[in-house]
Amino acid sequence: MVPERETAARERAASGATASSRTRARLDQPRPPRRRLLPEWDPEAFGRLSERIARFLGTGRFIVWMTVVIILWVLWNVAAPSALRFDEYPFIFLTLALSLQASYAAPLILLAQNRQDDRDRVNLEQDRKQNERSIADTEYLTREIAALRIGLGEVATRDWIRSELQDLVRDLEERQDGRRSCTYGLV
After folding, report:
1. What's residue 7's pLDDT?
2. Distance (Å, rounded) from C-alpha 113 to C-alpha 107?
3. How many CB atoms lie under 10 A from the CB of residue 50?
4. Each residue of 82-113: pLDDT tens digit?
5. What whole-number distance in Å separates Cα of residue 120 and Cα of residue 112?
6. pLDDT in tens, 35-48
7. How far is residue 182's CA from residue 187's CA, in Å, rounded to a whole number?
8. What does the DSSP assignment read for 84-152?
9. What residues have CB less than 8 Å from 62, skipping those under 6 apart?
10. Which helix (H) or strand (E) covers residue 46, if one does?
11. Residue 168, Cβ neighbours under 10 Å: how many?
12. Residue 150: what pLDDT?
């Protein structure tokens, strides 16, 4: 037999007759992507898109454009000839469009707020940890400064040495003056 056939025959014999029809999954490689019925989307991309929309909805530019569109809509449907009007006086279609816009805007704004809350929570946790480290560093430095002050209390400073030398000089001068007075008094 050829060596390739021998190894294939051994694998079939070892794994059983039913396993030979299946392909063996390799554990060192990722599985091939499966086909899905539902479309896939990146939640981060969708979140970023919702934040951009929410950011635009919160601007004065959006309010101005929305006001202009509504005014033009109403003017067109009031002043245009009857054959060209597409939404008569109660403006049902305009109400439907605004309701649809609001029904999409509210969840997008909430999604953007939730994402911002998550970012704020992470930033708050990082700030809290940084504050703890700063407090620990400050306490350490405070203890070190206190230890240095205690250590300096035992070290001779320049002013202390100067005052001690001045005291010694005065004592020596007094002794010398006392000897002079003794030698002058005996003569």
Report:
1. 56
2. 10
3. 20
4. 999 999 889 999 999 999 999 999 998 999 99
5. 12
6. 888 887 788 888 89
7. 9
8. T-SS-TT-HHHHHHHHHHHHHHHHHHHHHHHHHHHHHHHHHHHHHHHHHHHHHHHHHHHHHHHHHHHHH
9. 56
10. helix 43-57
11. 10
12. 85
